[in-house]
Amino acid sequence: MLGVLLQKNIKLVSKTLSAKRSLYIATVNFNRAQDTIELIKSIRNTNLPNIKLLVLDNGSKKEDFTLLKNSLPKRGLELIRKSKNLGFAKGFNLLITKALKANDCEMLMIINNDTLLSRTNITDLVTYCNSNPTSMVSPLLIFPNRSQVQSAGLKFFWPLGLTLNYKFNQDPAQLLSEHLYPYALTGACIITSKTVWQKLGGFREDFFAYFEDLELGSRARKIGIQPVVLSNTQVIHKHSLASGGQSSYSYTNKKINPFKSYFLMRNGIKWARLHLNFIYRGYFLATHISGQLMMSLLVYRNLSIIPIQIRAVKDGFFNNFNPPGI
After folding, report:
1. Exposure of 71 by Cβ count < 10 A (0-12 exposed, 13-18 middle, 19+ buried)?
2. For labelling, which of 63, 66, 73, 252 has a CA lying 20 to 30 Å from the CA of 193?
3. Which pTM value belongs to this model?
Protein backbone atom coordinates (compact mmCIF):
# COMPACT_ATOMS: atom_id res chain seq x y z
CA MET A 1 0.00 0.00 0.00
CA LEU A 2 2.83 2.41 0.93
CA GLY A 3 4.60 1.67 -2.33
CA VAL A 4 1.44 2.49 -4.29
CA LEU A 5 1.10 5.86 -2.51
CA LEU A 6 4.75 6.74 -3.16
CA GLN A 7 4.37 5.97 -6.85
CA LYS A 8 1.25 8.16 -7.01
CA ASN A 9 3.19 11.09 -5.53
CA ILE A 10 6.03 10.62 -8.02
CA LYS A 11 3.58 10.53 -10.93
CA LEU A 12 1.72 13.58 -9.59
CA VAL A 13 4.87 15.73 -9.46
CA SER A 14 5.95 14.53 -12.91
CA LYS A 15 2.50 15.29 -14.26
CA THR A 16 2.26 18.68 -12.55
CA LEU A 17 5.59 19.85 -13.91
CA SER A 18 5.67 20.12 -17.69
CA ALA A 19 7.72 17.64 -19.70
CA LYS A 20 11.43 18.29 -19.35
CA ARG A 21 10.73 21.02 -16.76
CA SER A 22 12.16 21.15 -13.26
CA LEU A 23 11.52 22.43 -9.79
CA TYR A 24 14.62 24.23 -8.54
CA ILE A 25 15.12 24.27 -4.76
CA ALA A 26 17.60 26.85 -3.44
CA THR A 27 19.07 27.21 0.04
CA VAL A 28 21.86 29.21 1.69
CA ASN A 29 24.34 27.91 4.27
CA PHE A 30 26.09 30.10 6.83
CA ASN A 31 28.09 28.12 9.39
CA ARG A 32 25.33 25.52 9.74
CA ALA A 33 26.62 22.73 7.50
CA GLN A 34 24.96 19.93 9.45
CA ASP A 35 21.54 21.55 9.11
CA THR A 36 22.07 22.05 5.38
CA ILE A 37 23.15 18.43 4.99
CA GLU A 38 20.01 17.25 6.81
CA LEU A 39 17.78 19.43 4.60
CA ILE A 40 19.36 18.13 1.38
CA LYS A 41 19.10 14.56 2.67
CA SER A 42 15.39 15.05 3.39
CA ILE A 43 14.85 16.29 -0.18
CA ARG A 44 16.88 13.51 -1.77
CA ASN A 45 15.04 10.89 0.28
CA THR A 46 11.78 11.86 -1.43
CA ASN A 47 13.10 10.32 -4.67
CA LEU A 48 10.93 12.76 -6.59
CA PRO A 49 11.90 13.46 -10.21
CA ASN A 50 12.53 16.79 -11.89
CA ILE A 51 14.16 18.42 -8.85
CA LYS A 52 17.43 20.33 -9.03
CA LEU A 53 19.23 21.69 -5.99
CA LEU A 54 21.21 24.91 -5.62
CA VAL A 55 23.24 25.53 -2.45
CA LEU A 56 25.19 28.70 -1.65
CA ASP A 57 27.80 28.69 1.08
CA ASN A 58 27.62 32.27 2.29
CA GLY A 59 31.13 32.86 3.63
CA SER A 60 31.14 30.11 6.26
CA LYS A 61 34.22 29.13 8.23
CA LYS A 62 36.61 26.83 6.40
CA GLU A 63 35.81 23.75 8.50
CA ASP A 64 32.06 24.25 8.03
CA PHE A 65 32.39 24.54 4.27
CA THR A 66 34.68 21.50 4.13
CA LEU A 67 32.08 19.42 5.96
CA LEU A 68 29.40 20.71 3.61
CA LYS A 69 31.40 20.05 0.46
CA ASN A 70 32.40 16.53 1.50
CA SER A 71 28.89 15.54 2.58
CA LEU A 72 26.65 16.80 -0.22
CA PRO A 73 25.84 14.64 -3.25
CA LYS A 74 27.54 15.53 -6.52
CA ARG A 75 24.67 14.65 -8.87
CA GLY A 76 21.66 16.92 -9.20
CA LEU A 77 23.16 19.58 -6.96
CA GLU A 78 25.31 22.65 -7.55
CA LEU A 79 27.31 24.04 -4.64
CA ILE A 80 28.51 27.64 -4.91
CA ARG A 81 31.05 29.14 -2.49
CA LYS A 82 31.42 32.82 -1.58
CA SER A 83 34.28 34.07 0.55
CA LYS A 84 32.15 36.55 2.51
CA ASN A 85 28.61 36.70 3.82
CA LEU A 86 26.42 38.30 1.14
CA GLY A 87 23.38 38.34 3.41
CA PHE A 88 20.09 36.51 3.04
CA ALA A 89 18.73 38.75 0.28
CA LYS A 90 21.76 38.88 -2.00
CA GLY A 91 22.64 35.25 -1.34
CA PHE A 92 19.24 34.00 -2.41
CA ASN A 93 19.13 36.44 -5.33
CA LEU A 94 22.29 34.85 -6.67
CA LEU A 95 20.58 31.45 -6.64
CA ILE A 96 17.26 32.83 -7.95
CA THR A 97 19.04 34.46 -10.90
CA LYS A 98 20.89 31.25 -11.67
CA ALA A 99 17.68 29.19 -11.61
CA LEU A 100 15.75 31.64 -13.78
CA LYS A 101 18.42 31.45 -16.46
CA ALA A 102 17.97 27.68 -16.73
CA ASN A 103 15.79 26.67 -19.66
CA ASP A 104 14.22 23.80 -17.72
CA CYS A 105 13.19 25.88 -14.67
CA GLU A 106 9.40 25.97 -14.25
CA MET A 107 9.10 26.60 -10.51
CA LEU A 108 11.52 27.77 -7.85
CA MET A 109 11.43 27.16 -4.13
CA ILE A 110 13.64 29.09 -1.72
CA ILE A 111 14.01 27.49 1.68
CA ASN A 112 16.00 28.03 4.85
CA ASN A 113 18.60 25.40 5.57
CA ASP A 114 17.18 24.88 9.10
CA THR A 115 14.10 23.11 7.72
CA LEU A 116 13.17 19.56 6.69
CA LEU A 117 11.06 18.63 3.65
CA SER A 118 9.04 15.52 2.86
CA ARG A 119 7.62 14.00 -0.32
CA THR A 120 4.11 15.17 0.61
CA ASN A 121 5.35 18.73 1.29
CA ILE A 122 6.84 19.10 -2.16
CA THR A 123 3.94 17.40 -3.96
CA ASP A 124 1.29 19.57 -2.28
CA LEU A 125 3.18 22.82 -2.86
CA VAL A 126 3.93 22.08 -6.52
CA THR A 127 0.35 21.00 -7.20
CA TYR A 128 -1.17 24.15 -5.66
CA CYS A 129 1.35 26.43 -7.34
CA ASN A 130 0.66 24.88 -10.72
CA SER A 131 -3.13 25.30 -10.27
CA ASN A 132 -2.74 28.90 -9.05
CA PRO A 133 0.06 30.39 -11.18
CA THR A 134 -0.26 33.94 -9.79
CA SER A 135 0.14 32.92 -6.16
CA MET A 136 3.12 32.66 -3.85
CA VAL A 137 2.84 29.60 -1.67
CA SER A 138 4.29 28.50 1.65
CA PRO A 139 3.75 25.53 3.95
CA LEU A 140 2.77 25.86 7.59
CA LEU A 141 6.05 26.08 9.49
CA ILE A 142 6.08 24.13 12.73
CA PHE A 143 8.57 23.72 15.56
CA PRO A 144 10.46 20.40 15.84
CA ASN A 145 8.09 19.27 18.62
CA ARG A 146 5.35 19.24 15.93
CA SER A 147 2.80 20.58 18.42
CA GLN A 148 3.24 24.32 17.83
CA VAL A 149 3.11 26.59 14.80
CA GLN A 150 6.24 28.65 14.23
CA SER A 151 4.80 30.69 11.36
CA ALA A 152 1.89 30.84 8.95
CA GLY A 153 3.28 33.96 7.28
CA LEU A 154 3.64 37.50 8.55
CA LYS A 155 1.12 39.90 10.08
CA PHE A 156 1.24 43.29 11.80
CA PHE A 157 0.92 44.15 15.47
CA TRP A 158 0.29 47.86 15.05
CA PRO A 159 0.35 48.96 18.75
CA LEU A 160 4.11 48.23 18.91
CA GLY A 161 4.96 48.56 15.23
CA LEU A 162 5.98 44.92 15.02
CA THR A 163 5.61 42.24 12.38
CA LEU A 164 4.76 38.91 13.93
CA ASN A 165 4.50 35.30 12.86
CA TYR A 166 0.84 34.59 12.04
CA LYS A 167 -0.71 31.76 14.13
CA PHE A 168 2.44 31.60 16.27
CA ASN A 169 2.37 28.85 18.95
CA GLN A 170 -1.07 27.60 17.90
CA ASP A 171 -1.82 23.90 17.56
CA PRO A 172 -1.21 22.94 13.90
CA ALA A 173 -3.83 20.19 14.17
CA GLN A 174 -6.48 22.89 14.51
CA LEU A 175 -5.53 24.47 11.18
CA LEU A 176 -5.58 21.46 8.87
CA SER A 177 -8.78 22.28 7.00
CA GLU A 178 -8.04 25.81 5.83
CA HIS A 179 -5.80 27.83 3.57
CA LEU A 180 -4.40 30.89 5.31
CA TYR A 181 -3.87 34.31 3.77
CA PRO A 182 -1.29 36.37 5.69
CA TYR A 183 0.00 39.78 4.62
CA ALA A 184 3.23 38.20 3.35
CA LEU A 185 5.11 34.90 3.46
CA THR A 186 8.15 34.30 5.60
CA GLY A 187 11.34 33.81 3.59
CA ALA A 188 11.92 30.48 5.33
CA CYS A 189 10.02 28.72 2.52
CA ILE A 190 8.42 30.20 -0.60
CA ILE A 191 7.54 28.49 -3.86
CA THR A 192 6.14 30.14 -6.96
CA SER A 193 6.43 29.97 -10.71
CA LYS A 194 9.35 31.16 -12.78
CA THR A 195 7.07 33.83 -14.26
CA VAL A 196 6.23 35.30 -10.85
CA TRP A 197 9.87 35.34 -9.78
CA GLN A 198 10.74 37.15 -13.01
CA LYS A 199 8.09 39.78 -12.32
CA LEU A 200 9.29 40.36 -8.77
CA GLY A 201 12.99 40.33 -9.55
CA GLY A 202 13.97 38.74 -6.23
CA PHE A 203 14.72 40.44 -2.93
CA ARG A 204 15.95 43.98 -2.35
CA GLU A 205 19.60 43.42 -1.57
CA ASP A 206 19.99 46.57 0.53
CA PHE A 207 17.88 44.84 3.21
CA PHE A 208 20.64 42.22 3.66
CA ALA A 209 18.57 40.18 6.16
CA TYR A 210 15.22 40.57 7.97
CA PHE A 211 12.18 42.38 6.55
CA GLU A 212 13.34 41.34 3.06
CA ASP A 213 10.49 38.82 2.92
CA LEU A 214 7.93 41.43 4.02
CA GLU A 215 9.27 43.84 1.41
CA LEU A 216 9.02 41.15 -1.28
CA GLY A 217 5.46 40.37 -0.19
CA SER A 218 4.52 44.05 -0.30
CA ARG A 219 5.66 44.32 -3.91
CA ALA A 220 3.87 41.07 -4.75
CA ARG A 221 0.56 42.34 -3.37
CA LYS A 222 0.82 45.52 -5.43
CA ILE A 223 0.86 43.49 -8.66
CA GLY A 224 -1.91 41.11 -7.61
CA ILE A 225 0.14 38.13 -6.42
CA GLN A 226 -1.64 36.42 -3.53
CA PRO A 227 0.36 34.96 -0.61
CA VAL A 228 -1.10 31.61 0.52
CA VAL A 229 -0.13 29.21 3.31
CA LEU A 230 -1.20 25.59 2.90
CA SER A 231 -1.94 24.69 6.50
CA ASN A 232 -2.25 20.97 5.77
CA THR A 233 1.33 20.99 4.45
CA GLN A 234 3.63 21.23 7.45
CA VAL A 235 7.40 21.77 7.39
CA ILE A 236 9.65 21.58 10.43
CA HIS A 237 11.55 24.83 10.99
CA LYS A 238 14.23 24.96 13.67
CA HIS A 239 13.93 28.78 13.54
CA SER A 240 16.71 31.40 13.56
CA LEU A 241 19.55 28.88 13.17
CA ALA A 242 20.04 30.05 9.59
CA SER A 243 21.12 33.49 10.80
CA GLY A 244 23.75 32.22 13.19
CA GLY A 245 22.10 30.19 15.87
CA GLN A 246 20.08 32.40 18.18
CA SER A 247 16.93 34.43 18.00
CA SER A 248 16.88 38.20 18.49
CA TYR A 249 15.99 37.86 22.16
CA SER A 250 16.52 34.92 24.50
CA TYR A 251 13.73 34.61 27.03
CA THR A 252 15.84 32.50 29.38
CA ASN A 253 19.04 34.52 29.75
CA LYS A 254 17.91 37.89 28.36
CA LYS A 255 20.80 38.07 25.92
CA ILE A 256 20.19 40.04 22.74
CA ASN A 257 21.54 39.26 19.30
CA PRO A 258 22.97 42.65 18.16
CA PHE A 259 23.07 41.61 14.49
CA LYS A 260 19.39 40.74 14.33
CA SER A 261 18.32 43.67 16.53
CA TYR A 262 20.13 46.10 14.23
CA PHE A 263 18.47 44.78 11.07
CA LEU A 264 15.00 44.54 12.62
CA MET A 265 15.17 48.21 13.58
CA ARG A 266 16.85 49.48 10.41
CA ASN A 267 14.89 47.43 7.90
CA GLY A 268 11.55 48.08 9.55
CA ILE A 269 12.18 51.77 8.94
CA LYS A 270 13.29 51.16 5.35
CA TRP A 271 10.23 49.03 4.64
CA ALA A 272 7.81 51.63 6.03
CA ARG A 273 9.40 54.40 3.98
CA LEU A 274 9.00 52.29 0.83
CA HIS A 275 5.52 50.86 1.24
CA LEU A 276 3.32 52.80 3.68
CA ASN A 277 1.40 55.96 2.93
CA PHE A 278 2.03 59.12 4.92
CA ILE A 279 -0.42 58.43 7.77
CA TYR A 280 0.40 54.75 8.28
CA ARG A 281 4.10 55.43 7.83
CA GLY A 282 4.25 57.99 10.61
CA TYR A 283 2.32 55.79 13.00
CA PHE A 284 4.33 52.67 12.17
CA LEU A 285 7.68 54.42 12.49
CA ALA A 286 6.77 55.91 15.87
CA THR A 287 5.54 52.61 17.28
CA HIS A 288 8.26 50.52 15.61
CA ILE A 289 11.16 52.59 16.96
CA SER A 290 9.69 53.02 20.43
CA GLY A 291 8.61 49.37 20.55
CA GLN A 292 12.09 48.05 19.74
CA LEU A 293 13.65 50.37 22.34
CA MET A 294 11.07 49.40 24.96
CA MET A 295 11.84 45.72 24.45
CA SER A 296 15.48 46.40 25.28
CA LEU A 297 14.86 48.75 28.21
CA LEU A 298 11.78 47.40 29.95
CA VAL A 299 11.45 43.74 29.01
CA TYR A 300 15.07 42.63 28.69
CA ARG A 301 16.68 45.44 30.72
CA ASN A 302 19.71 45.45 28.50
CA LEU A 303 21.25 48.88 27.89
CA SER A 304 24.15 47.61 25.78
CA ILE A 305 21.99 47.28 22.66
CA ILE A 306 20.68 50.87 22.73
CA PRO A 307 23.64 52.46 20.84
CA ILE A 308 23.30 49.80 18.13
CA GLN A 309 19.57 50.45 17.82
CA ILE A 310 20.10 54.22 17.64
CA ARG A 311 22.63 53.65 14.86
CA ALA A 312 20.09 51.41 13.13
CA VAL A 313 17.48 54.19 13.27
CA LYS A 314 19.88 56.62 11.58
CA ASP A 315 20.83 54.04 8.96
CA GLY A 316 17.19 53.26 8.25
CA PHE A 317 16.38 56.90 7.51
CA PHE A 318 19.58 57.69 5.61
CA ASN A 319 20.01 54.35 3.78
CA ASN A 320 23.33 53.59 5.43
CA PHE A 321 24.76 50.18 6.30
CA ASN A 322 26.74 49.82 9.55
CA PRO A 323 25.72 46.54 11.20
CA PRO A 324 27.63 44.96 14.09
CA GLY A 325 29.68 41.88 13.40
CA ILE A 326 30.18 42.30 9.62
Report:
1. middle
2. 73
3. 0.89
